[in-house]
Amino acid sequence: DVKVTQSSRYLVKRTGEKVFLECVQDMDHENMFWYRQDPGLGLRLIYFSYDVKMKEKGDIPEGYSVSREKKERFSLILESASTNQTSMYLCASRDISNYGYTFGSGTRLTVV
Amino acid sequence: DQQVKQNSPSLSVQEGRISILNCDYTNSMFDYFLWYKKYPAEGPTFLISISSIKDKNEDGRFTVFLNKSAKHLSLHIVPSQPGDSAVYFCAAMVGATNKLIFGTGTLLAVQP
User: Fold this and answer.
1) How far is residue B105's CA from residue B88's CA, in Å, rounded to a whole number?
2) What's the confidence (pLDDT) of residue A2?
3) Is A25 helix (H, G, I), strand (E, B) or coil?
4) Phi-psi sector, A74: left (phi>0), alpha (psi -120 to 50), beta
5) pLDDT at B2
6) I need a surface site. Which of A20, A30, B11, B40 has the fewest CB within 10 A?
7) What pLDDT was estimated at residue A27?
């Protein structure tokens, strides 16, 4: 079974802090994604990566950046956390040979 | 602009009855559709998918119907079980883009 592991289940950070959310997958998938889930808004794509050192903006990239130095790891960075970035963050990976995504368990981030 | 819409935020059904979750989309270029199920504090898990060349796909208690002319798909769960209580997300993809566009989700509650 593919595993996508997000390093933290719950995080509380202060406004203005730089925040790193880490995601690791163990199945050599090329594609990786970061989404956030908010009530009434569903899952919205922040950034994605087709392969190592490649990244593309999703629908809501403002205030975020990403890093993919190794194939298995995709990091989401909040440059200066704000309260409107309080959300559930979900990482996913995908093998290019099939359509389905495998998601991690999510990180519930609260910015105070 | 929401390309994938789930107009019912919630649905309640009795155990043993049919659950029907609906999804509408606006982009006629979508050619693959998926349903994901999400429990609280967990990542979404893949449930069932359908290609645009089909109008029905069945997997056990779950059936997805696609009406391309109406740009509408639905997920039928028969019979519904209390363990099916979760948020269900509809998602769509355009071929090689690898990006899944998600709907806002429908919270299904199956009453014992």
Assistant:
1) 5
2) 61
3) strand
4) beta
5) 76
6) B40
7) 86
